[in-house]
Amino acid sequence: MKDSVKDKIVGCLYGQAVGDALGLGTEFMSKDEVKRNYPNGLSEYSQIVQDYHRKRWDKGDWTDDTDMMLCIAKAIIKGRCINPKTVAHNFKQWFKNRPMGIGRHTYNVLALYDYELNPVNAAEITWNLSNRNSAPNGGIMRTSVVGLWDEDVVQNAEKICKLTHADPRCIGSCVIISELINHFVWHNMELPFEDILEIADRYDTRIRKYLLLAKNGELADLNLDEKTTMGYTLKPLACAVWCLYHVNSFKEGLLKIVNAGGDADTNAAVACAVLGAKYGMAGIPEYYVDSLNQKNVYECIINELANVLLN
């Protein structure tokens, strides 16, 4: 039992980093641009084009999505709990180092000088300045690790999301992903779709449409590369749910999401964290793990975290 749970914990965390690192190769591209840059599809880090955006990272690097997840992971390791105050501190310290790829909304929240004094208030101020219309994917991209803590999943997912994102669509999407992961890891089962819908309706009725489209439609129906909405929190949520009902392996899901373009590193980070929890480490082809940059550093953190979670 313990070995099985650890395999899923490690699979979830590596799934996040792999999806993030390969997804960088098509991030912000339209489907036509993906086809033009990768005529046979993107499937390996070595193929990633080194244009103005991507050349800032080495091939096989993860981005801010996994950086922020690691801020949460390190807080869990330090305190042996999910402490929002420690997580907020880690976010601010990470921000001070001028990270690459940080989203505009998250930047605006973390840039507030008194962020750490009341991070939830900082997030609400930023949301109010958008006329409460801003629901970007900066909360959901990092939430995978929250689902690995086997207590108070809903409350923890809410609290960590609210450190930067106040919109109920962001909060609901974080709760759903965290619950999906928690069920795969700790209960060895898939959260029933009816339960997913019930969670969604508790937060915002607009979430339901994306969930139904993901379960019953084609990946193209999600319009992942639409410029004005590619950073919407419900897009990566829908990607993860789509994969649960339309792919049969980790690699199939990874390549489908990455080659759809849009905010592909986030879409793939979220979807592949869920798939990693479902299929476990054994389901992830070795190439994707072994070819990650800083794999040794990541492995050390994962092992420390797994020891905390399992003891």
Detailed description of the structure:
This protein is an all-alpha fold and 311 residues long. It is 60% helix and 0% strand. It has helices at residues 2-23, 31-37, 64-79, 84-96, 104-110, 119-129, 153-161, 168-187, 193-203, 206-216, 234-246, 250-258, 264-279, 286-290, 295-310. α1 (2-23) packs antiparallel against α15 (295-310), α8 (168-187) packs antiparallel against α9 (193-203) and α10 (206-216) packs parallel to α11 (234-246). The radius of gyration is 17 Å and the shape is globular. The mean pLDDT is 97.
What's the total helix number?
15
Uncertain spans: none
Helix and strand pattern = HHHHHHHHHHHHHHH
* Rg from Cα: 17 Å
Number of strands: 0
Q: Indicate the percent of residues in helices.
A: 55-70%
Quaternary assembly: single chain
Strand % is under 5%
* Category by helix and strand content: mainly alpha
Average pLDDT score: 97
Major beta sheet summary: none
Distance between the termini: 13 Å
Shape: globular
Describe the secondary structure blueprint for this structure.
Blueprint: H1 2-23, H2 31-37, H3 64-79, H4 84-96, H5 104-110, H6 119-129, H7 153-161, H8 168-187, H9 193-203, H10 206-216, H11 234-246, H12 250-258, H13 264-279, H14 286-290, H15 295-310
Please tag this protein with its features:
311 residues, mainly alpha
Structure at a glance:
This protein has 311 residues and is an all-alpha fold.
